[in-house]
TrEMBL record:
<feature type="binding site">
    <location>
        <position position="208"/>
    </location>
    <ligand>
        <name>Zn(2+)</name>
    </ligand>
</feature>
<dbReference type="InterPro" id="IPR018317">
    <property type="entry name" value="QueC"/>
</dbReference>
<feature type="binding site">
    <location>
        <position position="205"/>
    </location>
    <ligand>
        <name>Zn(2+)</name>
    </ligand>
</feature>
<keyword id="KW-0067">ATP-binding</keyword>
<comment type="function">
    <text>Catalyzes the ATP-dependent conversion of 7-carboxy-7-deazaguanine (CDG) to 7-cyano-7-deazaguanine (preQ(0)).</text>
</comment>
<comment type="pathway">
    <text>Purine metabolism; 7-cyano-7-deazaguanine biosynthesis.</text>
</comment>
<feature type="binding site">
    <location>
        <position position="197"/>
    </location>
    <ligand>
        <name>Zn(2+)</name>
    </ligand>
</feature>
<dbReference type="InterPro" id="IPR014729">
    <property type="entry name" value="Rossmann-like_a/b/a_fold"/>
</dbReference>
<keyword id="KW-0479">Metal-binding</keyword>
<comment type="similarity">
    <text>Belongs to the QueC family.</text>
</comment>
<dbReference type="GO" id="GO:0005524">
    <property type="term" value="F:ATP binding"/>
</dbReference>
<keyword id="KW-0547">Nucleotide-binding</keyword>
<feature type="binding site">
    <location>
        <begin position="11"/>
        <end position="21"/>
    </location>
    <ligand>
        <name>ATP</name>
    </ligand>
</feature>
<keyword id="KW-0862">Zinc</keyword>
<protein>
    <recommendedName>
        <fullName>7-cyano-7-deazaguanine synthase</fullName>
        <ecNumber>6.3.4.20</ecNumber>
    </recommendedName>
</protein>
<feature type="binding site">
    <location>
        <position position="211"/>
    </location>
    <ligand>
        <name>Zn(2+)</name>
    </ligand>
</feature>
<dbReference type="GO" id="GO:0008616">
    <property type="term" value="P:tRNA queuosine(34) biosynthetic process"/>
</dbReference>
């Protein structure tokens, strides 16, 4: 599918970003997915992202970018193996309002690099699956963060200076997980190709915060999650 308008999709291989991919396609965009290998425990998600890109017929445009230095920095349960991923019943707040699964600067870096890809490809929008309801403790998932980054993009890019700034699209920003699943099912999002587990095993653990939110979303949407779980 080739159209006159293009969108870069930040694709993690998880439920939210894959739903964004489907929504961008539904909106008539030609898709340019970009995935980041930032030293996350969940290496499996990178392969899932490749499968999603293949499903949508855009494997030739799918970029996988290495940001391994985030693992060197540590500071997150997703990149630092000395920090345990919170299991069921644990908050993971560690004395603050920011969960230990927050990766410092991650979305800021993702959006900066996606902006470069968008400008080179002529994309007018960047889709990112941030959600302020389920991840309200993450500072880089808030609407005000997105708007400020969009302002900087307009100042820092040639297209922005010339009057055609790149937009950041966040269709999931205020949806519950159930709403995300319902909308994804409506447009045929391939959830069987996705993974959300923080632990990165062959079967999702069913216990980490991400698994629990995903399972809850499918249950409240009246649907069955198609991926295998060790615990549910």
């Amino acid at each position: 599918m080739t159209t006159s308008k293009k969108a870069v999709v930040i694709l993690s291989g998880g439920l939210d970003s894959t739903t964004c991919m489907g929504l961008a396609r539904e909106a008539g965009y030609d898709l340019y997915p970009i995935t980041f290998d930032y030293g996350q425990r969940q290496k499996r998600e990178i392969e899932n992202a490749r499968k999603v890109a293949e499903f949508y017929g855009v494997s030739d445009r799918h970029k996988v970018i290495s940001l391994g230095f985030l693992k060197e920095f540590g500071g997150s349960a997703l990149t630092d193996e000395s920090i345990e991923v919170p299991a069921a019943g644990e908050t993971g707040l560690e004395g603050s309002e920011i969960p230990v699964t927050y990766v410092p600067g991650r979305n800021l870096l993702f959006l900066s690099i996606a902006t470069s890809y968008a400008e080179v490809t002529g994309a007018e929008a960047i889709y990112i699956g941030v959600n302020a309801l389920d991840y309200s403790g993450y500072p880089d998932c808030r609407p005000e963060f997105i708007r400020k980054v969009e302002e900087v993009m307009a100042l820092a890019t040639r297209v922005g200076v010339e009057g055609g700034p790149i937009r950041i699209e966040t269709p999931l920003i205020d949806w519950t997980k159930a709403e995300i699943v319902r909308q994804g099912n409506r447009i045929g999002v391939p959830y069987h190709l996705t993974t959300s587990c923080y632990n990165g095993q062959e079967e999702a653990c069913g216990e980490c915060d991400s698994c629990r939110l995903r399972l809850k979303g499918f249950e409240e949407a009246g649907s069955t999650d198609p991926i295998p779980y060790r615990e549910a």
